[in-house]
Amino acid sequence: MADWFRRGGGPDEKSIREALKDVRDPEIGRDLVSLNMVRGVEIKGGRVKVGIALTTAGCPLRHRITQDVRERLMMIEGVREVEVDFGVMTDQDRQNLMNSLHGGKTELAPAFRDESKTRIIAVVSGKGGVGKSTVAVNLAAALDRAGHSVEILDADVHGASVPVMLGALEKPNVVDGVIFPVESPTGLKFISMGNFVSEGQAIIWRAPIVNKALTQLMRDVYWDEPDFIIVDMPPGTGDVALTVAQMIPKAEALVVTTPQADAARVAMKAGRMAVQAHLRVIGVVENMSYAECPECGHEMRIFGGDGGERVAAELGSRILGRIPILPDTTGEPGRCLFEEGSSPARAFDEIAAGIASMKVRKRIQVL
Ligand SMILES: Nc1ncnc2c1ncn2[C@@H]1O[C@H](COP(=O)(O)OP(=O)(O)OP(=O)(O)O)[C@@H](O)[C@H]1O
Ligand SMILES: [Mg+2]
Predict the structure, then answer these.
(1) 28 vs 329, which has greater pLDDT?
(2) What pLDDT is recorded for position 184?
(3) Is there a single domain that holds both residue 223 and residue 279?
(4) Which stretch of DSSP H or E encloses residue 265?
(5) Using an 8 Å Cβ cutoff, are 281 and 126 in contact?
(6) Coil, helix or strand for 79?
(7) Does a structural domain hold residue 123?
(8) How many domains does the chain have?
(9) What 3-state class would DSSP assign to 135?
(10) DSSP state letters, 88-132
(11) Higher pLDDT, 185 or 4
């Protein structure tokens, strides 16, 4: 039993503050004490009054916080009644909090810096439509299943598809310029330009603006330093890959191809480009590798070719997994995550295990 649980006597301030460490701000995901939101504790017999400073006056989460505080404090022996008294942080307090959350505005969020434990996995392919986004979200789901913390950065500014794939189109919360990732119905946190524009609205930006937007997502979003951030890259070998490589030298590249020769050729190009940009290529995923006969489970290689093998050989890397074609992958909201235990999901579990078990090497200099 935790030390806040005291037998006999009424509750004391220390035990109340200790218990409040178990209550998280629903938006920021950290506890109220470390966020410096607990501004006072008054105890009269079994009655406890807690002062909480919110980041904004109109915080829609008051009710939830009240409920969570009450529920937690009522677990303490001797507490009979809990009152929550809300105030608002001063501008200075809020600025300090936001700075501490994302490390100031001039640099990338801590997760992207070299010293952070977070591994950044960029999913690249070269050719469009081979399944980068499908691989990105399913890999994230598999890492999550395996108990790793994971978030997704949709770096495909023009063709953002992660929000639709995960079935979460709402706008992110923004507090004082800090953007909070959106959470999908299955609990995956991600950020995408697609969440900033209305559905169906196209973004037409020139490359420098795209780069600026991407930089902003790496700087102004509150990334929680998870074990992994999966970056869904746009097709092509161009600008965005270079930006990611330059800004996040520790990023690792996962190359996606299909078995066909033309996809493999472009994937090799994307892989070589990643290598030239000093990204470490950690492996190749061959998507739409085969179809499973629904009757006997036999693997049918519908597309000819050995794209995965060829790309891996060319890049001096290896195939981390082969994903079967699933007939009912429709691209519909929420329909792109393969069901846990299904054969594609198991293939992703293997890929996730392969990636998680890799020794993380320091950036390699190639040129
Ligand atoms: N293994 C699979 N089985 C069946 N359909 C798949 C599979 N992988 C991807 N798809 C489908 O193929 C289409 C393209 O996939 P996806 O959007 O992931 O590719 P992409 O490489 O990210 O494309 P883009 O280059 O446009 O970003 C989607 O409709 C997706 O649902
Ligand atoms: Mg995509």
Answers:
(1) 28
(2) 92
(3) yes
(4) helix 261-276
(5) no
(6) coil
(7) yes
(8) 2
(9) helix
(10) E--HHHHHHHHHHHHT-SSS--GGGSTTSS-EEEEEE-SSTTSSH
(11) 185
* Confidence at 90, pLDDT banded by 50, 70, 90: confident
Q: Which domain holds residue 300?
A: 110-356
Mean pLDDT of the chain, nearest integer: 85
Kindly state the tokens that stand for 242. Answer: 């270079």
Is residue 235 in contact with ligand 1, taking CB distance under 6 Å?
yes
Give kind and range of the element (H or E) at residue 190. strand 189-192
Pocket test for ligand 1, best of 133, 237, 290, 339 (most atoms within 8 A of CB): 133
Is residue 132 lining ligand 1, measured as CB closer than 6 Å?
yes
C-beta separation of 289 from 324 below 8 A: yes
Q: Per the domain annotation, does 138 fall within a domain?
A: yes
For ligand 2, the distance from its centroid to the CA atom of residue 358, given in whole angstroms, is: 25
Tokens of 42: 């008054």
The CA-based angle 356-259-250, given to 5 degrees, is 30
pLDDT in tens, 232-271: 998 876 677 777 877 888 999 999 999 988 888 888 888 8
Q: 79 and 198, same structural domain?
A: no
Percent of the chain with pLDDT over 70: 90
As given in the structure block, the two tokens for residue 7 are: 């037998």
Ligand nearest to the CA of 137: 1
Amino acid identity for residue 333 in this structure: P
**Is the CB–ligand 1 distance for residue 287 below 6 Å?**
yes
Q: For ligand 1, atom 30, which residue shows the shortest CA distance?
A: 331
Tell me, what CATH number does 114's domain have? 3.40.50.300
Question: Torsions phi, psi of 216, nearest 5?
Answer: -65, -40
If asked whether residues 309 and 172 sit together in one domain, one would say yes
